[in-house]
Amino acid sequence: MVPPAMVRCNRGLGRWFWFCVGIIVSVTAIAVVASGEAPWVMALTGLGVAALFLLARALLPPLTLSPAERVIRTRGRVVPYAAVAAVDFPPPDKAGVWAGFLGDDGRRLARLAIDETLMAPATVEQWAAVQQLVALGAAPGPASHAVAGQPLGGRRRPAGRSRPMGPAEAVAVLDAQVAWCAAGNRPGHRHAPVRALLGRVALR
Prior knowledge:
- Residues 143-166 are annotated as: Disordered.
- Keywords: Membrane, Transmembrane, Transmembrane helix.
- The chain crosses the membrane at residues 16-34, 40-60.
- The protein is of the alpha+beta class.
- It has four helices and nine strands; from the N terminus they run E-H-H-E-E-E-E-E-E-H-E-H-E.
- Helix 1 (15-35) runs antiparallel to helix 2.
- The chain is elongated.
């Protein structure tokens, strides 16, 4: 799949957001029945939902992948694809499933919400853009940053967390992930191809 010229990420509201909203609404309904003072309870509910939405937006900064320009855009920052040395897929945690774009020094340049976060899961277009980014780095030439299977130079990988994966292997998994999502499957499902990437660093 060829990704669009511009792919916006970290958007929408995911099932965990609506799960939290459901809890707030349920607690509100119980409070209304118990107290009989609906106006102030409903006001607190509205404030709670608004606070949850603002928290979600604050925790997930804007992220746009631009395959046409070969750059990553975040809040007030433009990062060329050539500056991305690897894509980190840490193991899932309480905050959900994520992917991080790393520079040569191992620092995270941007972060992509994959699934089980407050935002909507990553779309097939987003996966196609990530696949292209890794594939471009794997191609011979100045864009290539690492030898397949070798860790980044000077990067200190967290012990027991992220293991290196060669770009060719990563591209194959990402190809399968694109096909998986194109078939209408949830990107973070336990049978999704991306599960093979979790706990790995896909080198470019």
